[in-house]
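User:
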Amino acid sequence: MKKALLAAAASLGLLATGCATYQSVVPVDRGDRIASMQPADGTLFCVISNPVGNAYVEALRDSVQQRGFEFKALPPGSSVASCPYTATFFTQRLSYWRDFLGSAEIIVYVNGERAGKAYYDALRSAGGLNLSNLVPPEMKIEELVEQLLPGMRPKSATAGAGGAGATPAAPV
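Assistant: Predicted structure:
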């Protein structure tokens, strides 16, 4: 009986370890090469996305704009030196019982020089149960941007409220 329980526990442990997907992020360098990565409001951040369309470019736009950038979509084949900050953005949408982010690659260029890269692949796991289709694509893209642009926190919803904390509304 003990052997059966140990075997079941080991199987569950192996199944749980296979839940991870592959994700790799090299953050944008904030060193001497790039004097100040914190953009002034309105700094242009251009994005070159999949040539056949991109289901999640709106999620990237929202994440970039929350960090104070002005977002501009460029046509496929545009130069990465077109804007002070430019990113190539390639994603793949997959669907099982609902749509999810199958893979994403974001490469950021600052003044035409490669400065950072984020890569995510939901299908590249160590086997076992893969729960990546439960993660909303917008949350995964926000996570990748947060890791790619460290320290460029999204603006708070209460910014400019005079320093007073916002009080949540009472339920109706």
